[in-house]
């Protein structure tokens, strides 16, 4: 069976979409499928390509037996609107002709969104080849753009809504990462729930497994014996990290606690200026780290932080870092309601705090620090839970059966 997976993001880029595409493609390859990933040249989130990629239109490479075809993309940093839209459009315009020229005709085409124009590229290729098209929805676009107030409900957003509606109606199957997305697509666009399938995010247990807290990360960054609260991921408009800094301000009088924010994103410079303005000596910013070091960072912390802004749309979101913290036996402080709250409370691996409430967050931190034995129990419960329900290997098997059924007609 031949699968074409269209994704703007792929390793060495970091983040949930790149990890999901790579890990699923790797498992399908192990199961005997021929998998080609059509993707851009790595540049996310800083908008900088490797020197050898800057003037290239395409390159073919092998990544753990996965056939990877890279296509030209205009490199833009993960902030602002205009240049990012140009970047998305450039991938659409290059991926379709290069996909036709360089990829073998597959049995099924998957395209993953965000961003929506990537899904448009996959849909176009599938229709030109007359093959089934799977529209994989990891986030609702353009609704998320409106939720974080990146744009108003203007002509561009209305055009994206029409494009999303077309893709929902004319794809052969919609795969979502959460049940809430399915209900929203049904409610907003009138798409039948029978057309949708659930393949949530999960973890690679070989990559994310518990390790010693006193490791080289703790020593390198001078954390010592302090109680470290770690946020690792995109520092973006959706993540409500101003609330974390406000909680740090409430805990300034306690030198034993340290807030560490690792990553890049549209809000990073604003957050650093805010921390300087508030004279926060208990906050440390660290630039994005290689994927191989991410589990070491998780292992070195005491508690993981997962936050999003308090908007109704985010009630349906399941941030992928939830699964990674739990797999590492690190207890969570979660400021995301809805499905994420249900999952973490079901796991017994973390506590929920109302989003955008820094006082409640500070109180929860004090409560957790005073219960060291319970932290260890929470960690073990969390790992048992994700291994039982969110193992990427098991998810890949079920997804592959779905693709085989679609390809067989």
Describe the structure.
- The structure is a single chain.
- The protein is an alpha/beta fold.
- 44% of the residues lie in helices and 17% in strands.
- The strands form two sheets. Strands 3-4-2-1-5-6-7-8 form an eight-stranded mixed β-sheet.
- The longest helix has 21 residues, at 82-102.
- The radius of gyration is 21 Å and the shape is globular.
Structural class: alpha/beta
**Given the C-alpha coordinates, what overall shape results?**
globular
> Mean pLDDT, nearest integer?
93
Spatially, the strands of the biggest sheet line up as 3-4-2-1-5-6-7-8
Main pleated sheet: 8 strands, mixed
Helix content: 40-55%
Identify low-pLDDT runs: none
Mind telling me the C-alpha Rg? Answer: 21 Å
Beta-strand percent range? 15-25%
What string gives the helices and strands in order? EHEEEHEHEHHEHEHEHEHEHEHEHEHHH
The count of DSSP E runs of length 2 or more, i.e. the number of strands, is 14
Distance between the termini: 13 Å
List the total number of helices.
Answer: 15
Descriptors for this entry?
single chain; 409 residues; alpha/beta; six-stranded parallel sheet; 17% strand
Please render the helix and strand layout as text.
Layout lengths: L1 E5 L9 H15 L3 E7 L17 E6 L2 E6 L10 H21 L5 E6 L2 H14 L3 E5 L5 H5 L7 H16 L2 E4 L2 H11 L6 E3 L17 H5 L6 E6 L9 H9 L6 E6 L5 H10 L5 E4 L7 H7 L2 E5 L12 H8 L4 E4 L2 H10 L2 E3 L5 H12 L2 H18 L2 H17 L1
Parallel strand pairs: 1-2, 1-5, 2-4, 5-6, 6-7, 7-8, 9-10, 9-12, 10-11, 12-13, 13-14
Antiparallel strand pairs: 3-4
């Amino acid at each position: 069976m031949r699968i074409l997976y269209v994704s703007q993001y792929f390793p060495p880029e970091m983040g949930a979409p790149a990890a999901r595409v790579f890990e699923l493609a790797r498992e399908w390859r192990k199961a005997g499928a021929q998998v080609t990933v059509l993707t851009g040249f790595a540049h996310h989130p800083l908008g900088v390509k490797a020197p050898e990629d800057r003037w290239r239109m395409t390159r073919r490479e092998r990544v753990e037996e996965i056939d990877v075809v890279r296509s030209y993309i205009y490199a833009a940093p993960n902030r602002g609107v205009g240049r990012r839209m140009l970047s998305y459009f450039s991938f659409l315009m290059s991926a379709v002709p290069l996909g036709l020229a360089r990829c073998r005709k597959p049995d099924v085409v998957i395209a993953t969104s965000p961003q929506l124009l990537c899904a448009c590229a996959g849909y176009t290729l599938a229709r030109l080849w007359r093959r089934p098209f799977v529209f994989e929805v990891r986030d609702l676009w353009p609704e998320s753009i409106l939720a974080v107030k990146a744009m108003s409900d203007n002509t561009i957003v209305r055009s994206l809504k029409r494009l999303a509606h077309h893709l929902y109606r004319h794809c052969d199957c919609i795969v979502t990462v959460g049940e809430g997305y399915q209900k929203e697509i049904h409610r907003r666009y009138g798409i039948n729930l029978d057309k949708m399938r659930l393949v949530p995010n999960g973890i690679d247990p070989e990559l994310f497994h518990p390790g010693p807290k006193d490791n080289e990360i703790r020593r390198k960054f001078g954390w010592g014996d302090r109680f470290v609260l770690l946020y690792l991921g995109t520092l973006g408009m959706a993540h409500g990290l101003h609330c974390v800094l406000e909680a740090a301000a409430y805990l300034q009088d306690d030198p034993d606690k340290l807030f560490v924010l690792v990553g890049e994103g549209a809000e990073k410079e604003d957050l650093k200026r805010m921390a300087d303005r508030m004279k926060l000596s208990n906050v440390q910013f660290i630039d994005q780290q290689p994927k191989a070091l991410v589990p070491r960072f998780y292992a070195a912390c005491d508690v993981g932080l997962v936050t999003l802004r308090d908007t109704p749309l985010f009630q349906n979101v399941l941030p992928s870092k939830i699964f990674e913290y739990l797999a590492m036996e690190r207890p969570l402080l979660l400021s995301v309601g809805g499905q994420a709250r249900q999952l973490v409370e079901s796991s017994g691996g973390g506590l929920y705090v109302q989003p955008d409430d820094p006082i409640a967050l500070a109180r929860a931190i004090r409560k957790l620090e005073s219960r060291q034995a319970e932290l260890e129990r929470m960690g073990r419960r969390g790992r048992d839970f994700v291994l039982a329900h969110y193992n990427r290997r098991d998810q890949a098997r079920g997804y592959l059966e779905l693709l085989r059924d679609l390809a067989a007609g």
